[in-house]
Each structure stands twice: as structure tokens, then as C-alpha cells.
Write a structure and sequence with these properties.
By secondary structure, the chain is α+β, with helices and mostly antiparallel strands. It is 27% helix and 24% strand. Strands 6-9-10-24-23-22-19-12 form an eight-stranded mixed sheet, sandwiched between helices. The longest helix is centred in the N-terminal third of the chain and has 23 residues. The N and C termini lie far apart (65 Å).
């Protein structure tokens, strides 16, 4: 006989009728019906309704117990009448007639309710996270996360990958986000860094002759919090493969993701062969390299229209002459929308910090014309040309933005999402994946006006290595790629540059000398000098995958013990001060800010 329970609270059904059983769990709810007291007992597996008659001497004792008291119940399984069956729980056809109870754990007054999933102040939720995690929705999210990780681990092994663990204490990286630093007691004045990602180690694993590596890897970055990014730490499916090209990586991830998302969600996957979209096309058509392809709205460049003599919209024409661009966002069959809809979008755009969105709608009378604030500035021929370039038709509306390229891309990207939401164009019961490919190797730093790496400095440039033209670096594309789902970037990846001489040449373009590379990336460059295979990889974020599957908007809803926006653990009071003895042992002094 097990000491605390013979069954779980999610296990009993009609087959257990007339059996004496023992359950343990938390009091989830109580309902006093006068002569009968109903107690919903909850554990990790479910809820069982227990009942006690007023004639039982334990009635008053149970009546006084607080919700969330931990108790053990012994009793008899009885069948419910047809009218009282609860189809919302797995044990809904039975209840337990209480014979006896034992109090296993008392509770203080609760700072927040557990039996409901109502919204509650984040500060309270994080301070009492152990209570928050008892609530049904988030409890199920964390269980989902565990199942997703187990599924991924099993599938990766089936795909021939070996799981290895890489160091947590390592050296600081000069690239990327801020490191978390750990002082060394045995090496005074020196520091370890927690890994932002196992990037260099997983490449070294390939150089070591292992062919396929993966790890559910903890990563640490001293970054500000966002809805889809935890401050401090996160987990990723880190993988690397030898003797592969870009398509080999894509095949592995598509195989895994199709199985994973079909296993844990009933939503439709729009494209089982994930579309490949070049970075350049993504920025043109969607204004972003993280496009939500559930949204049918697309952007077109119509800058050339404003060089025509039969276009009289002088504000845009002057801006175009000075180097601005004009891009258009077409909405289908919206010409009959009220003026307030269009003016509302224009006002919203101004609230985002832009100059607004000009617009006109296409209609046909004796000829094609445009109605709206700027419609009168376009001839019929100009409108026909716009229709050709944007695939617009009579009855459609065209929103226009003019300005610097990055500003236009930014406003039209968020306008695309805003308008799609207003028009109810997005099917929330679908997943739409895509690959963004062909990233530029270099870009101009807006502050210094110097050339810098645009994405990942360790990526392999595209083209024949022996014939690579480095004289115009801004034209060089890299074998770098992102995987995106529903507008959320799940991961970046790349085919790695495994040729030391090529790496020196590329870093030189970005302002690094050979000595800089040898000093800052000594472990990597040294290893690549001893016969490195072509290799590449990717690292999809576990947290974001679970967010999508759980249909959550905030990463804290799928993280067991998250920090708040200020990177503080309110439950454990971290970060915290340390004692003078600890500081002395680490050869550290705290310099107080004035």
C-alpha cells in the first residue's frame, strides 16, 4: 500500500466504482450545499470531486480548511448520476465519498487565487511563482514545454544526432550582446563569461570529427527584456552538422518542425515546404526580415512613378529628387470603407512617429480615377502604371509612404500588421513558416559610416571561394538564414567559414587586423588551421517554439521561473549583495555610484 495515495486525482473513472482509494493533493475548491460539502482535490494530473455528509464528524473540520491546504483523503468511489456528470474533467463520472482525511500541509492566506486563470499583477505572480504555477493554464504550459523538449530530443537522436554538453564557464566574446561575467577565485583579476551561445564550441565539435551534434542549450545574454525574449537566460535547440550545405540544414529543421507542430497543435501548417525568401525581397515586400506570411498584404516600390510629369504630388516628387523612396501597400476591395477607416490608419501611422500614410482608392467611371485626399494628383496613365506595378485592381486602396529606405520599411512593416488586424485578414488557426536567406555579409554602420558585419562574422560568403571579389564587399551575400513563423524569428543559422585565410580577409574588411583575429578568436582560428570540415548549423529557440504552440504572447507564460523586466528574480531576491568575505575571497571591491 502506498503511503499517500493509491491513485492520482486524474485517474479515477467508473471502472473504480465501489473501490476504497486514497488520494492526496491541494484543495482547489469547496462548495457547501448545507447537508453536503463538496471538495475538489487537485494534483499534477487532474481534479477529483470528493464529498462528505454533514453527519460525518469530519464535516466541520473540512469546512474550516483553507483552499490550497494539502490533504490526504481516503474514501469510496461512487458513480455520479447522469445529471451531475462533469464532462470538463477526466474524473467527471465519479466522486469520492470521504471516510477520512489527513492534513499534510497547511497554508497561509493566499496572496493570489489559484483556482482561476484571471489576470493578476505581474509582480505578485513572479514573487509567488510557486503559486502561479499551480494555476491550470500556466501549469499546462510548463508541462507542454517538458513534452516538447522530450519530443525534440528523441527526434534528434532518430535523425542521427549525438547530444553533447558544452562548457558553461568560458571566455568573454567581443561580438554580440553583453556577457554575464563570473570572477575567478583562483585567477585573481580574471573573469569567466557565461556563454551567449555554444557557437564556438559546437564548431570545435565538428573540427573534432563528430558529424552531427545537438544540445538543449542554456544561453546567457545581458539584454533588456521583451515579450518574446527573457532577460538573462533562455534555451535553444543548438545543432551543428559536418559536410553539409544550406539545404541540408533546412531539410533537418523542416522534418523536425513538421512533426513537432503537428504533434502538439491542431493548427494548419500553410506550407509544408517552407518558402525561401531572400533578405532583399523580404524587406521590399514585407518591410521586415520577420514576415508574417499569414498576412496577404504586400508592399511594392513605386518610386519611379514620382519622376513622371503627369504626377502632380509635389511633396513626394521633391523628396524623391533628394533621394527618398516611395513604397505602396495595397488593400483589396476596400474602396467602399468609410473615410474614418483611412484617416484612422493615417493618424495611427503619425502616432508611431512617421509622417503618416497618404492613400487613395481606385474606382472606374468613364475612366480609371482615384478618390481620396491625393487621388487628384495622378493621371489615368499614372494610375494604370501603379496598378501594373502593385497588382492593384479597381476597388482596391493604396497606402503610400515616402522617406528614407529604413524609415519607409519600418512604418510599412507595422502598418501591414495593423491594417491586416483591422481588416481581420489573419487566420489565427494556422502556422506559416519561411526561411529568410541571402543576407548581405556586410553593411554600413549608420553611426561610424564604416563597413561592419551585418549578421554573423563567422559565416561563409556565397560564390566560388577562389574567385571571390572582395573589392565591393557590400555586394557579398552570405550563407546565413533565419527561420520565421507567424512573424516570430525562431532562429538564425549559417554555413560556417572554415577557411582561416578567408576569415582573415573578411575580418580585414570590417577593420580587424590579423593580430585582432588571432587574439580575440584564438581557439577557433587555431582549430580551423588543423583540417576543418565544411559545416553549418542553427539554433531554434525553445521558449519561442513553446510560445507558438501554447498560443501565448509573452515568454514568461512558458518559462518556469522567469525574471521581471529589470532582470530581477522577485521570488529568490536575485541579484543580491554578497558579503565582504566573499568579495575579499574573489579579490573584488564594490565601487559605489555617487
Amino acid at each position: 500500500m502506498k503511503k499517500y495515495r493509491t491513485h492520482t486525482c486524474g485517474e479515477l473513472n467508473k471502472s473504480h466504482k465501489d473501490k476504497e482509494i486514497s488520494l492526496s493533493g491541494w484543495i482547489n475548491k469547496k462548495r457547501d450545499h448545507g447537508n453536503l460539502l463538496f471538495v475538489d482535490l487537485r494534483d499534477n494530473y487532474g481534479i477529483t470531486q470528493c464529498v462528505i455528509d454533514k453527519s460525518n464528524e469530519l464535516f466541520k473540520e473540512i469546512e474550516k480548511l483553507s483552499l490550497e491546504t494539502v490533504i490526504q483523503v481516503t474514501g469510496l468511489v461512487i458513480e455520479r448520476s447522469d445529471k451531475t456528470i462533469n464532462e470538463n474533467i477526466s474524473t467527471g463520472e465519479i466522486e469520492v465519498k470521504i471516510y477520512n482525511i489527513y492534513i499534510l500541509g497547511k497554508t497561509k492566506e493566499l496572496p493570489m487565487p489559484v483556482f482561476s486563470d484571471q489576470e493578476y499583477a505581474e509582480e505578485i505572480r513572479l514573487k509567488y511563482r510557486f503559486l502561479d504555477l499551480r494555476r491550470k493554464k500556466i501549469h499546462q504550459n510548463i508541462i507542454l514545454r517538458s513534452k516538447v523538449i522530450s519530443f525534440i530530443r528523441n527526434e534528434m537522436q532518430n535523425l542521427g544526432f549525438l547530444e553533447f554538453q558544452t562548457p558553461i564557464l568560458t571566455s568573454s566574446s567581443p561580438e554580440g550582446a553583453r556577457d554575464f561575467l563570473v570572477p575567478s577565485r583562483l585567477n585573481p583579476g580574471k573573469f569567466y563569461a557565461l556563454p551567449q551561445a555554444p557557437q564556438q564550441f559546437k564548431q570545435l565539435i565538428m573540427v573534432s570529427g563528430f558529424d552531427k551534434y545537438f544540445q538543449i542549450a542554456p544561453c546567457f545574454r545581458d539584454e533588456d527584456a521583451r515579450a518574446d525574449r527573457s532577460p538573462g537566460e533562455f534555451y535553444q535547440l543548438d545543432l551543428e552538422m559536418s559536410f553539409v550545405n544550406q539545404e541540408d540544414i533546412f531539410d533537418i529543421i523542416e522534418t523536425l518542425f513538421l512533426k513537432l507542430f503537428k504533434k502538439f497543435s491542431n493548427k494548419k501548417i500553410l506550407h509544408e515546404k517552407f518558402p525561401r525568401i531572400s533578405y532583399e525581397d523580404a524587406m521590399l515586400r514585407y518591410g521586415s526580415d520577420k514576415p508574417d506570411l499569414r498576412n496577404p498584404l504586400q508592399i511594392s516600390d513605386i518610386t519611379n512613378i514620382f519622376t513622371r510629369d503627369d504626377v502632380k504630388f509635389e511633396i513626394f516628387k521633391k523628396l524623391v529628387k533628394s533621394g527618398s523612396i516611395v513604397r505602396a501597400l495595397v488593400t483589396k476591395n476596400t474602396s467602399e470603407k468609410p473615410r474614418s477607416f483611412f484617416d484612422g490608419i493615417d493618424k495611427w501611422a503619425k502616432d508611431q512617429g512617421s509622417s503618416g500614410l497618404a492613400y487613395f482608392s481606385l474606382e472606374k467611371g468613364d475612366s480609371i480615377n482615384a478618390k481620396g485626399p491625393i487621388g487628384k494628383f495622378f493621371s489615368e496613365d499614372a494610375l494604370l502604371e501603379i496598378m501594373t506595378q502593385t497588382n492593384a485592381n479597381i476597388g482596391d486602396t493604396i497606402f503610400l509612404s515616402c522617406g528614407k529606405k529604413d524609415e519607409v520599411e519600418q512604418i510599412l512593416s507595422i502598418a501591414r500588421d495593423k491594417i491586416a488586424e483591422e481588416l481581420n485578414l489573419i487566420d489565427n488557426e494556422t502556422f506559416s513558416f519561411c526561411w529568410i536567406v541571402d543576407y548581405p555579409m556586410f553593411e554600413i554602420d549608420e553611426t561610424t559610416k564604416k563597413i561592419k558585419f551585418s549578421h554573423n562574422p563567422f559565416s561563409m560568403p556565397q560564390g566560388e571561394i577562389n574567385k571571390l571579389d572582395l573589392s565591393d564587399p557590400l555586394k557579398i551575400k552570405a550563407y546565413q538564414y533565419d527561420i520565421v513563423c507567424n512573424g516570430i524569428e525562431l532562429s538564425s543559422g549559417a554555413i560556417r567559414n572554415h577557411i582561416p585565410e578567408l576569415m582573415y580577409n573578411l575580418f580585414k574588411i570590417a577593420g580587424y587586423s590579423k593580430n585582432d583575429v588571432d587574439s580575440k578568436f584564438s581557439g577557433m582560428i587555431n582549430a580551423l588551421s588543423y583540417g576543418a570540415p565544411p559545416h553549418g548549423g542553427i539554433a531554434p529557440g525553445i521558449d519561442r517554439i513553446v510560445m507558438l504552440l501554447a498560443n501565448e504572447k509573452n515568454i514568461r507564460e512558458v518559462t518556469m521561473f522567469p525574471m521581471n523586466q529589470n532582470a530581477q528574480d522577485l521570488m529568490m531576491n536575485a541579484p543580491s549583495e554578497i558579503s565582504e568575505d566573499q568579495l575579499k575571497e574573489l579579490n573584488l571591491n564594490i565601487k559605489k555610484k555617487k
